[in-house]
Amino acid sequence: MSWVEGAGGSPYGVHHLPYGVFSTRKDPHPRLGVRIGDFVLDLRGLAAGPFFLPWIRPVFHAPDLGEFMAAGPPAWRTVRLQLIELLIDDVYRDRYRHLLVPVDKVRMHLPFAVADFVDFYASEHHASNLGKMFRPGSEPLLPNWKRLPVGYHGRAGTVVASGTPITRPAGQYKRADGEIEVGPSRRLDIEAEIGFVVGVPTELGTAVGPDDFADHVFGAVLVNDWSARDIQAWEYQPLGPFLGKSFATSISHWVTPLEALAWAKTAAPEQDPAPLEYLKESERFSYDITMSVSLNGIELSKPPFAGMYWTPAQQLAHMTVNGAGLRTGDLFASGTVSGPEKRQWGSFQELTWGGTEPLELGDGAAHTFLEDGDTVTITATAPGANGEVVGLGEVTGSIL
């Protein structure tokens, strides 16, 4: 139990301790913090004294998490153990409680500088649903889908923090009468995803095997990869997504360290055919994360991450097998998380079956794709130690 009031039983207790970047009205300069209950512990203030070891203190004077993430697993583990000790031992209460800032009194920022952004397509249920819609009468999955984690390289510069308003994108699309025009997207969608953040970089030409996942990946964030389905449908052949995806991707403020998800590990789905050698895992696992998607405050679905066919470790292995180097701040996302049932689907493309089955929200209106003024919020939880719950924060955005 922590001496911090309200931390016991919180999704942000000492079993979690997610990292973020915050500022206050008194001090508008962004600085690092760790969440405990309904407070943020100021890590820059903590590092100004003797609490941390001298070699680790400088990383907490940086404006974002980059230097700490690059320090690697020994630093991550050491700091985590020290923070747990500080937050559960009453001897530290009077000495450090002045460094606690209420969450509702801070402004949160993008937690790290995004180096590269890669988005995968790892849910068999999602890929099958889209295959049935776009290729009726054919096999839902293309021949390569069960041989490799399909993905595309996105745009790092348009990854934004939760709460950032989303301007409706414009682009070319094909009208129902076959004519091509340019204008605002009429089929604006979401993709509920989990993203993983690289801390330790690699040299160009170095492949990272799936068993080395935890040596490089710092933690997880929630992702909403906003998608303009009409723009995407017209542009994606033959080179894949471009303007239909690159206008905005939202991520949560808090980065959950991998170690906090240790109790959420669960067996990943069996793969058939067996993957090639570079994708084989000695311990094949996923994470038992349950997501929630809400539109204007009404919950629509609860996508389950545990059933993703391609695991985060396999995604990391695939995106480096060609020798592409990792950089601190690289973000790779799972792609839309969807389960076998409609109440588990993570996009409006699926929930409305391409716009043919409007959603009933109780307001008498027919909801298909996103309207101006709509607000989408994605949250997620995972099991923690001793029956605790790990809350992965939220990612939210409103359409302008």
What is the overall shape?
globular
CATH architecture designation of the largest domain? Alpha-Beta Complex
Q: How many discrete domains?
A: 2
CATH topology type of the largest domain: Fumarylacetoacetate hydrolase, domain 2
Q: How is the main sheet built?
A: 8 strands, mixed
The number of distinct helices, counting runs of at least 4 residues, comes to: 10
What distance separates the N and C termini?
43 Å
Q: What is the CATH C-level name of the largest domain? A: Alpha Beta
Structural class: alpha+beta
The low-confidence parts are none
**Considering the protein shown, what is the CATH homologous superfamily of the largest domain?**
Fumarylacetoacetase-like, C-terminal domain
Write down how many β-strands occur, each being a DSSP E stretch of 2 or more residues. Answer: 23
Task: Name the helicity range.
Answer: 10-25%
- Report the radius of gyration as a whole number of Å: 21 Å
State which percent range the strand residues make up: 25-35%
Average pLDDT confidence is: 97
Would you kindly provide a written description of the structure presented here, covering whatever features stand out?
- With 400 residues, the protein is α+β, with helices and mostly antiparallel strands.
- It has two domains: 19-109, SH3 type barrels (Roll); 117-398, Alpha-Beta Complex (Fumarylacetoacetate hydrolase, domain 2).
- It is built from ten helices and 23 strands.
- The protein starts with 18 loop residues before the first strand and ends with a strand.
